[in-house]
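Crash report, auto-generated. Payload:
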Amino acid sequence: MKKFTFLAVALKNLKRKPFRSGILISAIAILVSLLIFAISFSISVGSSLKKSSDRLGADLIIVPVGARGFAEEFLLESKHTAFYMPKEMIKRVAAIEGIETLTHQTYLSSISGLCCDILPTRIIAFDPENDFIIKPWLQGSLGRPLQRGEAIAGFGTNENLGLGLLAVETTIFNNKFKIVGVLEQTGTGLDNALFMTEENLAAIIESGKSPLKKGEISIIFAKVKKGADPDYVGRVVEGSIVDVDVVARSNMGEKFLNVLADINKIFLISITLSSLLTIFLVWAIFSAIANERAKEIGIMRAIGAKESHITKLFFLEVLTLGIIGSLIGVAAGTLLAFWLVHTFTLIKTISAQLNLVHQLVIAVAGLILGSGICVGGALLPINRIKKMEPLLVIKEE
Amino acid sequence: MSQIEIIKLNKFYTVGDTIIPGVNEVSLNIEQGEFLSVVGHSGSGKTTLVSIVGGILRPTSGQVLYNGCDICELDDNGLSEYRNKKIGFMFQFASLLPILTATENVLLPALFSPDQQQAKDNAEKAQRCLELVGIGEKGLAYPSQLSGGQQRRVAIARALMNDPEIILADEPTGDLDEDTEREIMELFSRINEEQKVTIIFITHNLELARQAKKQIRMHQGIVEELAL
Ligand SMILES: Nc1ncnc2c1ncn2[C@@H]1O[C@H](COP(=O)(O)OP(=O)(O)OP(=O)(O)O)[C@@H](O)[C@H]1O
Ligand SMILES: [Mg+2]
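Recovered output after restart:
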């Protein structure tokens, strides 16, 4: 015979109303998965943004007046905007005190059917002479500089382009290009662009299919001198050149971070509310269970069960529910985070940013919250019953 | 010294503004190994008296001395241990836990027992108790699969599990046929004689009551008549 223990009794009690146990487990599971998802979400987004701005390596982003919004969200934006300023801006910016080096890029928007074989996408032309934005990244993915007539796709662009295959020939603004590779994922808007070197631009302008004119660039990235304050230098640039907007690194993604903070708040509120709801649910169900079993509890007390024994029996029951529910919730929440990643355009790397320790800590937190809520909800009804005199409980029906 | 000494025991129930006397100034001695029947009208206080002796109800005033020690002074843990080790209960109604098998029901008192060393032999002992009450083969059956009489037997086996010194039975045969009733009474007298367990049973059946070695009658909370 199997050993007769408190746990055995608790499990038998759970099995006697499988539907009700199922509802309790589901409630806990839903709550915990919401928690897990919320935490995964905010940790990943926050850290992904920080990583991206760190790796960008530029202290200032300089764009034509009116494109500030784009610059602020540069790391995340994947819209195919195109804006231009004269190339002379480079010299004017370089002349400003505190600027150390700069590089520039030119953006093109491809329009399907009209000009190009590929689906609409952002095309970024950079200057390999002074580039410090793409190069480190290109080095890792391709291992050599890009040649004329070659393009390399951002991580997410591969599918967006509808190419699927590498080393294919494609026509962009009447020019043949060979796609030579796919860059590593960055989790930023850059993942959705196609990169080429600046030398290709002349031929593209000649095709007449693009709004780009000779001598125009879109954006300047600048590093400031050691010891200089990027914010201050940025203000100086903006003050002395009226035609540009400047965004410092510390302001990058600011709007997005504010939105993120709001999203976190919403998560927090809904988790608090659902915790309360779950506590009520558990409390209501356990009140019913306790009342329903009043006679049994009385009988157990009469044959010698102490108050602590009754508590132990219920707690084992509740904890089993809590633990099963939490485990399911942890699994579901993690899965949800993995799965939902693909529906967020802004964060493609959500789960990639969570290391094992993170995930473990979150899982344990979920487990504690889930089981804690079960125990908390069951506490009151159990206490009421076990305090009553056995005979009166037995007679109470 | 008597095994149980009841001294000026009172139990008043308050319902709203009215006070209902359950037990009224009862004093009574019960000796070790006694076989005592309690009769009386419905509502005369039999269950109340026996429940106080068994430690599942606290009196309003008075004392119940078990081997000279007042059980009413015990805290909840002490009282639970007293019930667990010294008392075997049988109730007026079916009292088995429906989710547990017969054997598991019999094992319950051992689960709550403060001394857990003898836990290994518990399963064997439960089986012996079931055999003693004549349903050794029903160990794996659930209460719903047993007849009323068999359920009562399981309840007796459970009452015997922790080797109690006193068995308190509240109308143990109330809704059973006469044959089963007789068999259960025989079982009680055997346990009383062989194991020297004190047995106190409540009944409405005067004939059954006469089979006890000692009878008391209750009337409006008072132990009215001691007939030997
Ligand atoms: N929980 C209670 N609250 C109020 N009054 C009660 C309660 N329990 C019992 N009484 C009253 O106390 C008196 C004695 O009740 P008790 O249950 O002891 O009677 P009894 O002799 O066992 O009756 P029966 O033969 O019907 O079982 C009755 O008048 C009853 O109404
Ligand atoms: Mg009664």
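Post-recovery validation: Chain B has a mean pLDDT of 89.
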